[in-house]
Amino acid sequence: MAIKIGDTAPEFTLFNSDKKEVSLSDYKGKNVVLLFFPLAFTGVCTKELCTMRDDIASYKNLDAEILAVSVDSLFVLEKFKAEQNLNFDLLADFNREVCAAYGAQYGDFVLGMRGVAKRSAFVIDKSGIVQYAEILDNAGELPDFAAVQRTLSGLN
User: How far apart are CA 18 and CA 92, in angstroms?
Assistant: First the structure.
């Protein structure tokens, strides 16, 4: 079931690309932009995360932290983060549990892959409530970053 605006964001703990556990509850008292992306090293995913990297100051000014989740292994994410010089946590949902909890998962993806994260964007407020939810069926599209920023602006 997909997460909707007004829902309490499902708690999770995942390993980041530095092999450290990161929990959503670590960000209690902060706004969070939670992104799900299908696969590291693919064109649209690289564009999406580099867009966030290049605009990180805007998100910091809106009192928001960025977390990006994929089903890639933390070892793949470590290399991807380093190559793209990404300045926020990449989290490995290798067991596909968090994607499922947020309703952000493809049943069937390209090349016979199943359970890949759907490109999605969520804004979670300081109290852990979802204030914005966008789950894209088309992996070739990017989230509406302007809408994400407008939502964040309304929280401050």
Answer: 11
pTM: 0.94
Contact between residue 10 and residue 120 where contact means Cβ atoms under 8 Å apart:
no
| Active site (catalytic) residues | 45
30-155 under CATH 3.40.30.10, yes or no: yes
Nearest one of 93, 132, 116 to 14, comparing CA atoms? 93
Strands annotated E in 17-125? 21-23, 31-36, 64-70, 89-92, 120-124
Parse the chain into domains and list their residue ranges.
Answer: 30-155
pLDDT in tens, 4-13: 999 999 999 9
The whole-number pLDDT of residue 109 equals 61
Burial 90-123 (b: 16+ CB within 10 A, else e): bbbbbeeebbebbbbbbeebeeeeeebbbbbbbb
